[in-house]
Design brief:
5 domains; 4-stranded antiparallel sheet; 55% helix; 631 residues; globular; alpha/beta
Length: 631
């Protein structure tokens, strides 16, 4: 069964009325029912009367201590109640005390604590309490709705293992149908990648591969110079974001920066969908999602385009053979997905066939021989389901907000640029940083800055028919401004927001400044025709970051160009290619090395793999085309 409306009952035992009021406001926003008691004795009586799922108790209370209350509650209810103890007296020694251990609390929080941590613990313990109580009553466990911020996600995989070409796509669709908010983390040996979902909508991604960093992409495309990239890295080391550094230096405008970042996300999604090994794990991390949020991507459209690529032909044939006897059923997303499919396959007969009947996979393939492989794409993108599929959430995929305008409209570039620049400032930041005011700024200053921001982007921009792709950004920006106004211009709401902020981390010199600079020096030396100097620079970078696949690949290539131990350099490249199976640079240099030796067959094989790992890298594609042409 699915039940996302079970009331969570929380008992707060706290003699500090202001703290109790704050906790009440915070937890009520998550739909919790709060009971407050000011001393230990009345708290124990309230527990017996209300039977809450979670108890929040101070350690030092009148009439009965928090330890005594906690122990008495645990003896009555066992693990069917979650208990969190709070106190400014809880330091390392106290946590190890005999009294604290005997109290058997689930968690101890020292004041002051981060409200986000408290909320997560309360909701997690409430779910445990609800499930244990239902199990004791012989009832089915609750399948918690994934629209909550911290809900557990059941992945359609065993032990989170990626064991084939379908795993990542099917997991993403399951998370999207569940309305999940969090990060899907993929790992395989040295490669890591995260995909961010906000209420079931894909909004961003990142990986640990240097070759996909924004500044270096522009460098390889000839858009910026080594000296300009050095300036960008210096600003990033000082705390500025890459996109903002590019804008500040004048290397691109805000709209171009957003476009480049959105392009990166699509490439990373394609890389994720191609993973066939390793593990994946979903983490409910809303702040992490907002830090990665770039744009709303139509997941079904992205997966459909990926699955229709010619390189998926072998997977499609395997699918047809393995599932030929399975009956086809239309999902709730079939008709909405037809618009995507029709743009890519305007002459296909599959839509009319599947709209009029529910054949088996084999029957549909026989009836539409020209488009039979497309059945695989329809299934992988969630447009159709099969009889043999495991059960999942029967809910349509979320439809991301998109501009309805076409490229034929004249775009108001000034308005679009203002919106894009403001959105880049606001994404992933707390409200104060986004507005450029101190956290202790008076309400009048915050209000004035909000008014200035509204004037800067202009409400009339939303009514304009000339924003093009910036319309979705404008809607997002105004939602952010509305949230700021609600949380900063109300005194109680601002108090809640302030307490929930993570304490600012002390600024430290970036440990990447030296290796990044050495890496840039190496590339400059190669550009000057000095491979020995480049090798020495890359060695300095590798000494600091020995596991960076890009650093090692460039070091090996410089050694080859310098005429040093080529066998050792090739071994370095092969090791990096195996350890980082998503990294393009090691196999690309293996291909260049084979080309230098005159082994065009091996060169073509390595370069083709490089293009497969990074399909949009223009340099790799150009070299591969040259080798294929015998150049």
């Amino acid at each position: 069964m699915t039940d996302d409306k079970l009331p969570v009952r929380v008992l707060v035992i706290e003699d500090d009325d202001s703290l109790a009021a704050l906790l009440t406001r915070v937890l009520q926003r998550d739909g919790c029912l709060i009971t407050h008691s000011r001393d230990g004795k009345s708290g124990l009586e309230a527990f017996e009367r209300e039977q809450p799922h979670v108890v929040l108790s101070d350690g030092l209370l009148p009439k009965m201590t928090g330890f005594e209350v906690c122990k008495a509650i645990r003896e009555q209810a066992g693990d069917k109640v979650g208990i969190i103890m709070m106190s400014g007296a809880f330091r390392a020694v106290s946590l190890r005390s005999k009294e604290a251990q005997e109290a058997r609390a689930d968690a101890f929080l020292s004041k002051p604590f981060v409200l986000g941590d408290l909320r997560k613990r309360v909701l997690d313990l409430a779910r445990r309490s609800i499930d244990l109580r239902r199990a004791a009553a012989g009832e089915e466990p609750v399948v918690h709705n994934e629209r909550t911020r911290t809900g557990p996600i059941v992945l359609p995989l065993e032990s989170g293992q990626i064991d084939g070409p379908h795993a990542v796509a099917l997991t993403l669709l399951a998370l999207a149908r569940g309305g999940a908010t969090g990060l899907l983390r993929l790992e395989w040996e040295g490669s890591r990648l995260e995909l961010a979902l906000l209420r079931g909508v894909l909004v961003g991604a990142r990986d640990n591969l240097r070759e996909h960093q924004l500044g270096e992409r522009l460098l390889r495309r000839g858009r910026i110079t080594h000296e300009q990239l050095k300036q960008v890295n210096e600003r990033v080391a000082a705390g500025e974001r890459v996109a903002e550094a590019l804008i500040t230096i004048g290397l691109c405008d805000a709209c171009e920066a957003l476009t480049l970042i959105e392009e990166q996300v699509r490439e990373r999604l394609a890389r994720a969908l191609a993973w066939r090994h390793g593990t994946l794990r979903f983490v409910a991390d809303e702040p992490g999602v907002h830090a990665l949020a770039v744009e709303t991507y139509d997941l079904q459209q992205e997966i459909l385009g990926y699955a229709l690529e010619e390189r998926r032909a072998a997977e499609a044939d395997g699918f047809l053979d393995a599932r030929a006897s399975d009956g086809v059923r239309r999902t709730r997303d079939f008709e909405t997905g037809l618009a995507h499919y029709a743009r890519l396959r305007a002459t296909s007969t599959l839509p009319s066939l599947l709209l009029s009947s529910e054949p088996t996979v084999g029957e549909a393939a026989a009836a539409a021989p020209r488009d039979q492989r497309d059945l695989y794409a329809l299934w992988l993108s969630g447009m159709i389901g099969l009889e043999g599929d495991p059960p999942g959430v029967d809910r349509p995929l979320p439809r991301p907000a998109r501009s309805e305008e076409t490229a034929g409209f004249l775009v108001d570039k000034v308005a679009a640029e203002k919106i894009a620049a403001a959105l880049l400032r606001c994404r992933g930041r707390n409200h104060y940083d986004a507005l450029g005011v101190a956290r202790d700024a008076p309400m009048t200053e915050v209000a004035a800055r909000l008014v200035a921001l509204e004037r800067e982007v202009g409400i009339e921009a939303l009514g304009s028919a000339k924003l093009g792709s910036a319309r979705a950004a404008a809607l997002e920006l105004w939602a952010v401004i509305d949230t700021m106004r609600a949380e900063l211009l109300d005194r109680e709401a601002r108090e809640v927001y302030d307490v929930g902020l993570d304490p600012p981390a002390p600024r430290r010199p970036s440990p990447q400044v030296a290796p990044e600079q050495a890496f840039l020096d190496g590339q400059v030396q190669l550009g000057l025709g000095n491979p020995q100097g480049a090798k020495e620079a890359f060695e300095r970078a590798v000494a600091v970051r020995p596991n960076d696949p890009d650093f090692n690949a460039w070091l090996a290539w410089a050694a080859i160009l310098a005429g040093e131990d080529e066998l050792f350099a090739l071994d370095v490249l092969e090791t990096a290619a195996r350890a980082f199976p998503q990294a393009m640079r090691p196999v690309f240099f293996l291909g260049l090395a084979a080309k230098r030796r005159g082994d065009l067959v091996m060169a073509h094989a390595h370069l083709a793999e490089a293009v497969q790992r990074s399909p949009h890298d223009l340099e790799a594609r150009a070299v591969l085309a040259g080798v294929a042409a015998g150049r």
